[in-house]
Amino acid sequence: MDKGVDEAGWDVEPGDEIEPVVQAVGRLLRVCREAAGVSVSELAATLGYGEDMVRKIERGARIPRPEYLDRADQLLKAQGHLRAFMEGMRKARYPKKIRELADLLLSEITMPPKGFADS
C-alpha cells in the first residue's frame, strides 16, 4: 500500500466537538468534486491517494490534511473554499484534550500576571 494513501488525513474521534466541522468539510469536498465533474477515482489518482481514503474524507470519517485541501482546491477550482479550512483541519488532527491544553497555555501566556496594573 502506498504510504501517501494512509497519510491523507487523521481519524476523527467519535463525539469530538470538531466532528460536525470535519463532516461539513467532507460534504464540501464532495460538492466541489461533483461540480467539477471529477469522479472519486479521478480525484484519488490525481492527488495520489486511494479511492477509499477520498471516500472516508468525503464522509467525514477522516480529517483531511491541509495539503490535501490545498491540492483539491486547485484541482477542483474551488476558488479558495477548501483552502479556507486548512488551519482548522490542521488543529483538528489533535485530540480534544490536547486542543484544550493548547488553548489554556495560550491564554496563560497572553494574560498579564496577577497584580499587574497598567500604568
Low-pLDDT sequence parts: 1-6
Secondary-structure element series: HEHHHEHHH
CATH architectural grouping? Orthogonal Bundle
Work out the helix count. 7
- Mean pLDDT score, rounded? 84
Q: Which topology does CATH recognise?
A: 434 Repressor (Amino-terminal Domain)
**Structural class assignment:** mainly alpha
Strand order of the largest sheet: 1-2
> What is the radius of gyration?
18 Å
CATH class: Mainly Alpha
Beta-strand segment tally: 2
The helical percent reads 55-70%
What is the molecular shape?
A: elongated
Taking the sheet with the most strands, its summary is:
2 strands, antiparallel
What share of residues are in beta strands? 5-15%
- How many discrete structural domains? 1
Q: Could you tell me how far the N terminus lies from the C terminus, measured between alpha carbons in angstroms? A: 63 Å
| CATH homology superfamily | lambda repressor-like DNA-binding domains
Helices and strands in order:
Blueprint: H1 3-6, E1 9-11, H2 19-35, H3 40-47, H4 51-59, E2 62-64, H5 66-76, H6 86-92, H7 96-110
Antiparallel strand pairs: 1-2
Characterise the protein shown here.
Helices cover 60% and strands 5% of the residues. With 119 residues, the protein is mainly alpha-helical. The chain has one domain: lambda repressor-like DNA-binding domains (434 Repressor (Amino-terminal Domain)). The chain has a two-stranded antiparallel sheet with strand order 1-2. Helix 3 crosses helix 4 and helix 5 packs antiparallel against helix 6. It is elongated. The N terminus is likely disordered.
